[in-house]
Amino acid sequence: MIKKVAILANGGDVSGFNAVIRAIVKTAENKGIECYGFIDGYNGLLKNEYEKLSTANDESASGILPKGGSIIGSSTNANVFNYKVEENGQIVYKDLSDICVENVKKDGFDCLFTLGGDGTQKSARDFSTKGINVIGIPKTIDNDVACTDITFGYNTAVSVATEALDRLHTTGETHHRIMVLEVMGRYAGWIALESAIAGGADIALIPEIPYDLNKAVEKINARRAKGKNFSIVVVAEGAAPKDGTITVLNTRNNGSGVDNTKLGGVGQVVAKQLEELTGLEARNTTLGYMQRGGTPTAFDRVLSTKYGSKAMELALEGEFGVLAVIKNGKLDSVSLEDVVGNNKKIGAVSGNTAESNLRKVTMDDELVKTARNIGICLGD
Length: 380
Prior knowledge:
CATH class of the largest domain: Alpha Beta
Helix content: 25-40%
Order of helices and strands: EHEHEEEHEHEHEHEHEEEHEHEEHH
Distance between the termini: 55 Å
CATH architecture of the largest domain: 3-Layer(aba) Sandwich
Largest sheet: 7 strands, mixed
CATH topology of the largest domain: Rossmann fold
């Protein structure tokens, strides 16, 4: 019988975190269940730092539906199965997950809800093998979590990118320029592709299609031949040229077992090359963290609420070790084992590895077909 549950938000912040938290708390309160939130993701779980969550007047989870970010914080550097610690002036990595397991048991939590992307859910799966009742909820603006149609936070990111493209159109047209917009997405091109369609872009370069910049030049020149002396280009941060590599901004040291590669800079590279090849002025705008923050769209508010409510339902039904998902437009659940795919090793690296189970754009996806049908150049 579920009496007391805990929530943690982990990974990069997204719009919708708070809407999920609110939905879990409100559903729990209607069933007489106590809710708590671990502070700053898996770091809070390790340190056993948590607070009571309630939607009563002026309480922590009241009035948070339209608020961006996470009221219980989040962490991007907390792989507790391979945690960076300092001993005698030296950096070493240790598996501290048993401390987390003991904290959950000592605190009397009957279920732990993990709000996060592929790395977060990999750790959730690892905790489930240690006997913790875990239910995951797929969060990321990248939309790359396996086994679900869509993650919360993604729609808001696409909407922000689309608004940016609308604004870049006017400058590009006025000054006869190539306007490049670099968007996030890590190793998946969902944001770039969908915002390109929604924002009327002429070219979209995504990680799944190694690009030939000469194809983009052909598209730009074809527009010029029709009297259109400007073009709009969307570039995903993980896009790479044929026979080339992704552009890395820097490499972080956030510990072992997490993706320490910080992508960025490809938009500036593409803008410079296009200017040289076409003779048109080209300008790059890197949208960056604007895509993550702020008020969630109505779509993300509803999606997040559905996810939170479904997750609490799963807990009441005793269905643990699963991820709440949307499959064919309907709420469902899948095993966390399916979510991590071949990435079975405890504490293994998450991200763009051979074992990772990231959901990427496939060439038979309707978005790809739609983009090609309306004449968007994908660089191939």
